[in-house]
Amino acid sequence: MKNALFVYNPISGGHKVPSELDYILGTFQKKGVLVQPYRLIDANNEYLVSALKSGIYDFVIASGGDGTINFVANILLDNDIKMPIGVIPSGTCNDFAKCLGINSLNESLSIILQGKTLLCDVGLINNSHYFLSTFAGGNFVDVSFNTNSELKKNFGPLAYYLKGLSEVANIKSFDLKVTADEHIIEGKFLLFLIVNGKQAAGFPNLLNDADFTDGYMDIILVKKCSNINLASIFFKVLSKESVNDKNVIILKAKKCELVSKSPIALTVDGEKSELFPAEIEFKNKLLEVFVPQGIYELNK
């Protein structure tokens, strides 16, 4: 029998996971996996690190929003714990899970039990903190913190879009210098996104050619533009089109540096951040994750 540690955020997704806990444990137990629940109640990770280092567990399962998955992944990477991580999405956007092709509880359980894993890229900010899906700054990135929890529960990512659109009239540009490999770009911008997959901020297929195993980050820069042009960009991504637009710059790089004289709201995997100015390096195939059979076949 295998052993797994199940680390879950009890309040993510409207307290969804606690109500499904017996079902989750039972599903694994029937397949010969004994799962130990670990309830995240604060940022103190001493006991969690000790458990993951104990050698008892064959793999770890993380359930919550992108911030929860980020928290567990950083513990693994900071402590050089070589262990696969399974993802059970229970947040609002679940960007990293969707980048891996995981969309639901039952789907995630099946994927973990199939046992197929890949090594995925991670971003490292200022040599101190890893991110899995998105590092973002500028307008709209803080809407997740200012959106009513009941609205998020009822409308999911759509709640963020509605909140963001309501703030269009109040947007302000900021100066930004981006050094990305051999590229240097300076100007006035409304938003930047550094992403590790096709989805970010709940927008599916934001970049059709993004790949979380190629060792490159995708950088999206939205230039200062009129509200009409900005609304056009929103319409494209809401229509599940690629973000390509004359007011959008898209780059690929292994390393980049971002500096600005302006105060900028920042998020790392959906959580508030103050990691700025930022030097970012992408680490190729550093984190082992459970993935669907199809994605495994494409990338093995």
| Helical fraction | 25-40%
CATH topology of the largest domain: Tumour Suppressor Smad4
CATH top level label of the largest domain: Mainly Beta
Instruction: Give the N-to-C terminal Cα separation.
Output: 26 Å
**Rg over C-alpha atoms, rounded to the nearest angstrom:** 19 Å
Report the principal-axis shape. Answer: elongated
- Quick one: biggest sheet? 11 strands, antiparallel
- Number of helices, where a helix is a run of at least 4 consecutive DSSP H or I residues: 10
Number of domains: 2
Mean pLDDT: 88
The share of residues in extended strands comes to: 25-35%
Instruction: Label the structural class.
Output: alpha+beta
Number of strands: 15
Low-confidence stretches: 150-160
How would you concisely characterize the structure shown here?
This protein has helices at residues 12-30, 46-53, 66-78, 95-99, 105-114, 143-146, 149-155, 157-166, 227-238, 293-299, and strands spanning 2-8, 33-39, 59-64, 85-89, 117-125, 129-131, 134-138, 174-180, 183-195, 217-223, 248-253, 255-259, 266-268, 271-272, 278-290. With 300 residues, it is an alpha+beta fold.
Question: In words, what does this structure look like?
Answer:
- By secondary structure, the chain is an alpha+beta fold.
- It folds into two domains: 2-121 and 286-299, Probable inorganic polyphosphate/atp-NAD kinase, domain 1 (Rossmann fold, 3-Layer(aba) Sandwich), CATH 3.40.50; 131-284, Tumour Suppressor Smad4 (Sandwich).
- The chain contains ten helices and 15 strands.
- Helix 7 crosses helix 8.
- The longest helix is centred in the first third of the chain and has 19 residues, at 12-30.
